[in-house]
Specification:
Length: 265
Amino acid sequence: MLFASTTPRGASSTPTDNRRPVRARRLLSASLAALLTTSLLGLAAQASGAAPQSAPAAGHDPVIMIPGMTGTPSSMNPMKSNLQSNGWPADRLFTWTDSSSMTQDLAKAAQQLSVKVDQVRSQTGADKVVLATWSASTLAARYYIKDLDGADKVSQYIGFAGPQHGTANNGCQWYVSCQQFASPNTPFLKALNSPTEVPYDDRIDYLTIRSTADYNATPVDTAKLAGADENYLMSGPTAPSHFMIISNATALAKMRSFITAHEND
């Protein structure tokens, strides 16, 4: 891919028949006491305005994680596991890709993303989602925000190693999507990047993460977005490759800190 869970012990029976009525009366009394206690506690909770346990605070916006060209939803499992181990509820984490695995027209992928976003919002009750994208999907997500109905449904956009301005490593043009980002001047990219690379940035926070050790999305600054809230560069001997950036601990820590820092924007 270029961008690509004991069973409780039962009560012993009483050996003498003449003790059974007494035991039955005790059990009945205990049951009634427990029921009364539960009812009183429920009334106390209502009186104090306490929230029901079945309706916890929503917390983080749902995160939809999307792989690059030829990737599968499981490609994003390391990112999903990282978020979950750092406090994100499992029921607010989603991995997804379009029907072509980002190999065909990215505008059509964006249309399918629109359906997925609406499904996640309906399922979770959230107003907005975070899009965590990698490689080719960075472009489909921006198209969704800019040209479809994403502006009011996305709170944050995070792009890992995206060919935002094309790539010099473009020997993948048997795929339609690769043709769309094969150079900075493709019709798709020219339209996507004009008049701004960060559409609706008054409503959406933008983070890009790139690496000097990425030899797929090249040159390295192709992954930057002019006007983004942050363009984060990873360099030095520990800089991750194109394929490792979405599981790199430093990159994922940056993503988490950005999300939490901008949740109330």
